[in-house]
User: Fold these one by one.
Assistant:
Number 1:
Amino acid sequence: MSTNTPSPSTEPDSPADPSDAISVAQRTDVETAVPAEAPVYRCDYCGRPFATESYRTLHHGLAHEGVLTDEGREAFEAAYEDENASLRRFRIIALGLLVLLYFGFLFVFAVVT
Ligand SMILES: [Zn+2]
């Protein structure tokens, strides 16, 4: 298993939005691990392992924003949009399931009582 414990970052902590409650260091200083037989995508700047290329691209944009090339920045923006689209889809599906569950229990309650 390939692991990497967080190390103190030498980069300035500069989140895109100053009102953001979670700083970049807090978002990126988590331990990452990849199973031994799985392909590993290592960060070009800090060597942290990631399970997918998309995760590594997102890490580049969040943790190494200051040193990214234009190509890296474009890849980060594309990966960020994909991640946002996936989150939006998940939220819509979760909301739909909650509504179904609510009305399901409501109809069961109406029939039983
Ligand atoms: Zn890195």
Note: The helical segments are 24-28, 53-63, 70-112.
Number 2:
Amino acid sequence: MTLRPAAVDTGITFLRTDVAPGTGLVPARWDRVVDTRMCTVIGNDHGVTIGTIEHLMAALRGCGVDNAVIELDGPEVPVMDGSSAPFVFLIDCVGIERQPARRSVIRVLDTVRVEDGPAWAMLSPDATTNLAFEIDFESAAIGRQSRVLRLTEDSFAEELARARTFGFVQDVERLRAAGLARGASLDNAIVVDGDTVLNPEGLRYPDEFVRHKMLDAVGDLHLAGHAIVGRYEGCRAGHAVTNRLLHALFAQPEAWRLERLSDAPATLSTTWSTVGDFRASA
Ligand SMILES: [Zn+2]
């Protein structure tokens, strides 16, 4: 994977370098999402897809990156440790460059809500970007967890970035039987067996599970194309519900507006590449 700087107002764009020339470009946008069952997958009209984009998208949003090109030589963003922390670390290493322009954001003007059974998500007007999330699992290892956060570069790095994805051991076994999640391991996820966390190192935060769900929401919301200014609330919401929320928002032109702020947009100062090397040495 290689991350490159990009021009003002181009947003985040993925480029598959292992497919036929001219077919590999996929803008990281809510209307390019083609699958949300395991992770967030985007695709284009050529049938080229890119999976597991959400933790990288969260890192870009968390670090304040508005514009970037992400080159990949395969169909999936490297999962790393299942969190956004390795991406945040590498983005911090290359640095952020302010661009000579005014930053565009999406300001939420009216409440939009979607639900799917017990899961729901909502966007409503707010002066800054605020998040509230609640989960409720039968497993005593997780239980009911809720958290609120005002999203800033500092709060993302300190409170969300290190929270890892999680799964249940029976799901991992079922997915493996179906030929999926072959790379899933204790190195890239929290694995829960009944009421027990199997990872010998334990949790990184006492409520790492709800923090990771917030991280996912930050990444999936960055598919709006610009940072969203408003309040996001989610309850048991996953990738599908958050994507439906963006569809609902953009279906209501009176519920949002594109606004130019006085501060400058940001891209990467330079190019960084080969996450694989980082993983090998980590
Ligand atoms: Zn996730």
Note: The chain has seven helices and 21 strands.
